[in-house]
Amino acid sequence: MSEKKMSSSRKHHLKSLMLSIAKVLLEQEEQEREEERSRYMMETCPPLSLPRGMQELQELCREIHHRMDVIDEERYDLEMKVNKSNKEIDDLKIKVQDLMGKFKKPVLRKVRMSADAMLKALLGSKHTVNLDLRANLKQVKKEVKEEDKELRDVGDWRKNIEDKSGMDGRKKMFEAEA
């Protein structure tokens, strides 16, 4: 079946009708709320008649305090009921997510923590782990070879050759060996 397209004027007319009906419905709901509120206020808070004597005034205060206590009890009961239902709703949402097999990952906050502090938090305070990598290495002493010392002491090769050249240089070599 091919659907016929509506003209823009027809669409505009229907849209304006829908908006006017919605406006009327919203006004009616607001009026009903106002009537319900005024009816409730008349039931719970009758018009105040101020007494002339001290005894009547004290009696009025006692009555008002009693009403306040009753209202506070009702408010507390309703709060507890709402909290309980909110908890049940959260539990049911978790169950639904588990049944569907989908889990939304919570947004994680960035935390500045060293590696040592992170391991301590993960492993608990009993395990102290140190991530100082240099501490786990062996200490190795450098052995300085005598040949290396001689090479360092020699310094410039030209000077060494000049010292050993001639009879004086050979004499010094023999004296050093002996």
N-end to C-end Cα span: 121 Å
Overall geometric form? elongated
Query: Averaging pLDDT over every residue, what do you get?
Result: 79
**How many E-type strands?**
0
The fraction of residues assigned to DSSP E strands is: under 5%
Q: What is the helix content?
A: 55-70%
How many strands, what sense, and barrel or not for the largest sheet?
none
Q: Which stretches of 5+ consecutive residues score pLDDT under 50?
A: none
Rg over C-alpha atoms, rounded to the nearest angstrom: 48 Å
Return the string of H and E elements.
HHHHHH
The number of helices is 6
Helix-strand makeup class: mainly alpha
Describe this structure in words.
- The protein contains 6 helices and no strands.
- The protein is mostly helical and 178 residues long.
- The mean pLDDT is 79.
Structure in a nutshell:
The protein is an all-alpha fold and 178 residues long. It is built from 6 helices and no strands.
Strand and helix layout:
Elements: H1 8-44, H2 54-100, H3 115-123, H4 146-154, H5 157-164, H6 166-177
What key attributes describe this structure?
178 residues; 69% helix; single chain; mainly alpha; 6 helices
